[in-house]
Amino acid sequence: xxxxxxxxxxxxxxxxxxxxxxxxxxxxxxxxxxxxxxxxxxxxxxxxxxxxxxxxxxxxxxxxxxxxxxxxxxxxxxxxxxxxxxxxxxxxxxxxxxxxxxxxxxxxxxxxxxxxxxxxxxxxxxxxxxxxxxxxxxxxxxxxxxxxxxxxxxxxxxxxxxxxxxxxxxxxxxxxxxxxxxxxxxxxxxxxxxxxxxxxxxxxxxxxxxxxxxxxxxxxxxxx
Length: 224
Prior knowledge:
With 224 residues, the protein is of the alpha+beta class. It contains nine helices and five strands, in the order H-H-H-H-H-H-H-E-E-H-E-H-E-E. The chain has a five-stranded mixed beta sheet, sandwiched between helices. Strand 1 (124-130) and strand 2 form a beta hairpin. It starts with 11 loop residues before the first helix and ends in a 7-residue tail after the last strand.
């Protein structure tokens, strides 16, 4: 049955307009993005197939072009649209961080980091540099490594903090393994960075670990 044959209140677009986007399931939201289905399947059916094939929205959006385009009904145009949506979301969250005190909008920082890092297949270590009012000055990916580890050099981090004339910094890195719990090396690295940056009067405000299952804050866990 085509979506146009559904009761109006159950059609994804009409449902969104009447009840808001949060009332829709992942498949219904994805169906609005897809717009049309394929022969024998509505857009919602196709969306469910995509979620089943890739596991969840995170893995779907992280899919490579070949894997994505191999799905019947998908193609390069849809893949490009998906990537554009992700980049727009990243930029919107980055703008939200830049417009105020990063400590007073932890949700924006967390959402930005999760969107940026959770689907990466290698470990990436990044820093958000802040001024004295904790406004975002810049964010940079400083180091990248393998599936399980990244080499981080405190001296290089200090150099980047001085380059930006930062007063504070928030660190983040991802765990492609899916485990959010910090390792002993994560704790030791954070301590080493705090000590190195304290010599140039730069405060470490937080260190986030991002994985597909969540986002852990060192500050919230009392580990700073």
